[in-house]
Amino acid sequence: MNRRTLTRWLAVLLMSTSTLLALPALAADEAANALIDRLSTEVLGSIKASPSVRTGDVATIIALVDATVMPHMNFKRMTASAVGPAWRQATPEQQKRLQEEFKTLLVRTYAGAVAQVTDLSVVVKPLRASPQDKEVVVRTEIKGRGDPVQLDYRLEKTSGDGAGWKIYNLNVMGVWLVETYRSQFAQEVNTKGIDGLIATLADRNKVNASKG
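The structure assignment produced for this chain is given below.
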């Protein structure tokens, strides 16, 4: 399986439809690997059933991400990790803008791949963790044309409102997504500061939007 095929699956994870919204009680009690297994199955079914998502309509996809995917992700932690040490110096407003622009970047980057995911299947491997663990790695195998490929997820156990396992990083083709962006963002922060990084992300999103 090539990088393009795996990119399609990453697109699925970022842009699933409304069947992903789990009941709070289920999310709180669900094991991390069970969550990934359920989401994988439901996402594939949702993509097949949603023409608007399959055509890559970005406005629809962003609205769906807000309503469905975000409850299963710690996106603040994902963004903070991608930004690196500079996150702690950012104001609350800057942090909010960074999250918004980073989310839009991810959605627009992978929107075009949604229509091509119907030929994939996912096998979730047994979880190697203790019941008391608060952070785990769930390993999956993506099957399609060619050799299977490993895709891993880092999750943390949360409490309080919306309690349950939250995804905060993904390993795509042996490379963690957050670390990939961290090196890019660090260069921007070092030369232009936090506001410069926000402006760069906004500009990239405008360019992507102009391409349809």
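Interim note for the steering committee: The chain has one domain: 3-210. Strands lie at 121-124, 135-143, 149-158, 164-172, 175-176.
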